[in-house]
């Protein structure tokens, strides 16, 4: 997949407990890469305190690749969404990305890569077939 020429990579993957994050974690682990997976089970990326503490406790020092798959996908129309659901989506998708980037950018090796899956494309795909709001 990514950077096949390198023998050993330090890879961090968020959203690692299911979906594409889990598939990528399994793939790179099977390739023998050093993979660290973050999921809501071990770190709430929406919380700066939890995120920064997680990186200190895991002693994450140098990364080659960061693949950010963690996201909340709510398929309700805004006018039908309650505040708590919207707040959770914003905290996870925006603040979680911000907190992650603050922690990983200083740890990226020279020429390292950050891949952020385009959540809006996922949402757009879901919303295309939904009926027009009332």
Would you write up a description of this structure?
The protein is α/β, with parallel strands linked by helices. It has one domain: Rossmann fold. Helices cover 40% and strands 19% of the residues. The chain has 4 helices and 4 strands; from the N terminus they run E-H-E-H-E-H-E-H. The chain has a 4-stranded parallel sheet, covered by helices on one side. Strand 1, helix 1 and strand 2 form a beta-alpha-beta unit. It is globular.
Write a concise keyword list for the protein shown above.
single chain; 134 residues; alpha/beta; Rossmann fold; four-stranded parallel β-sheet; 4 strands; 40% helix; disordered C terminus
Element layout with pairings:
Layout: E1 10-14, H1 19-30, E2 34-38, H2 48-57, E3 63-68, H3 83-104, E4 108-116, H4 119-128
Parallel strand pairs: 1-2, 1-3, 3-4
CATH superfamily: NAD(P)-binding Rossmann-like Domain
- What is the terminal-to-terminal distance? 44 Å
Derived structural class:
alpha/beta
Shape: globular
Number of helices: 4
- Neighbour order of strands in the largest sheet: 2-1-3-4
Q: Could you name the CATH topology?
A: Rossmann fold
CATH first level: Alpha Beta
Calculate the mean pLDDT score and round it: 83
